[in-house]
Amino acid sequence: MDAIVAEPRPAAVTEPRPKLGLRAMVIEDDPDLAEVIADYLQRSGFDVEISGDGAAAVAAAHRLPPDVVVLDLGLPSLDGVEVCRQLRTFSDAYVVMVTARADEVDTLVGLSVGADDYLTKPFSPRELIARIEAMLRRPRAGTVNASGMPLPGERRIDELVIDPQGREVSLAGTPIALTRTEFDLLDVLSRRPGMVFSRDQLLSELWGPGWVGDAHVVDVHIASLRRKLGDTAAERRYIRTIRGIGYRMGDGRSQR
């Protein structure tokens, strides 16, 4: 099996950790790889379910909703992109997409339908667990931010309304369905609307300072967020690209 980077099992997962009370679903049609991933997740405290078929996995997620999904791109019956698209109609689970294809288009397509992160085979199981744990450390509704202060209240930017406490977004009175990562990204940008964030800063805010991977994952989520907000890179009404630096919130007015 060449999808996993050969490495000794780290001491950190030699003994199982206490249960987290979280469910992980591994959707992978290679049974050996699925077992390795599931083993690492179980030793990290997750309850794990394995599915080797896309349609069956969607049905299983309906019956018992997961908190985290590790999703292979190439699956029988339904591919990973379609599985992710269907999951996003009823689940806000974190989704890490795994692909054996080097073609960047596959990765971008996967993220555009709601995946939170991706890994390309072969990959390190330790890296997978680190990515998942970083996502789970993000603040959620009803929590406080890093400064210890309560999260700010409703924010209004022209026709865009962001409610951090309720984790809801609307545009001109119409609710906008965002993935967890898309909402977290919009939350960070709108919390400090005058600040320009570099990709590395956004990665640190959302994935944690120890995150290792392709920084262009930020660009993919920005593109998806713009599309859902009816924005474009040319108009930059709500999210502005600052060339050579990064991104900041707009004021709702077109920059075309």
From TrEMBL:
InterPro entries cross-referenced by the UniProt entry: CheY-like_superfamily, OmpR/PhoB-type_DNA-bd, Sig_transdc_resp-reg_C-effctor, Sig_transdc_resp-reg_receiver, WalR-like, WH-like_DNA-bd_sf
- Response regulatory domain residues are 23-136
- Which keywords describe this protein according to UniProt? DNA-binding, Phosphoprotein, Transcription, Transcription regulation
DNA-binding region coordinates: 152-251
Task: Please verify whether the record's keywords include Hydrolase.
Answer: no
Which intervals hold domain OmpR/PhoB-type?
152-251
Using the record's annotations, give every residue carrying the modification 4-aspartylphosphate. D72
Please name the CDD domains in this protein's record: trans_reg_C (cd00383)
- Which PANTHER family does the UniProt entry name for this protein? DNA-BINDING DUAL TRANSCRIPTIONAL REGULATOR OMPR, REGULATOR OF RPOS
What protein am I looking at? Response regulator transcription factor
Give the classification, highest ranks.
Bacteria, Bacillati, Actinomycetota, Actinomycetes, Mycobacteriales
